[in-house]
Amino acid sequence: MTLNLKFLRVQSGMTLEQLASDSCLTRSYLSKLERGLPSPSIGSALKIAEALGTTLDRLYGQNNDKDLVAVVRARNGKPGEPDTYLSLVAGLAPERLMRAFIVRPGRTAQRGRIMSHHEGEEILFILTGKIELHIGKRKEVLSPGDCVQFESTIPHKLTAMTSEPASALVVIAAKGD
Hints:
Layout: H1 5-11, H2 16-23, H3 27-34, H4 42-52, H5 56-59, E1 86-90, E2 98-103, E3 121-128, E4 131-135, E5 138-142, E6 147-151, E7 156-160, E8 167-173
Antiparallel strand pairs: 1-2, 2-8, 3-6, 3-8, 4-5, 4-7
């Protein structure tokens, strides 16, 4: 699943500099995202969508239906895009309160990922591999089947602990007013 970033930015009449300023991200990072080099963190994707005045589903190029039941099919038996850091797998319609992602953290911070934080509440369910969750000043090593729930405003980061591919289901819920 590729980002619709450049299309949405141009459609909204924004320059990279304006988007960088509005999203609090760097121009060079946004330029790389437009070229499809890194995959943004959840926090960065939320900032970009907000700055563009759009939804995550539009940012990720998904169509939204008014159907009350949304089914997203696995590809080759795997959820989301198996080769990407982050895949949006549910919550595509803008009226949905929750968004679900499959995240595949690497063993190191090779992409320069910083601690993520954003509005809402988050659930992290480990699917494969061992993952270290760095949340605030705390670190937890998690194994398949482990589940963590926390306020998303607390800075957090995921790192794979083994050479085995690691993945987790992340569900983010918007806070009600």
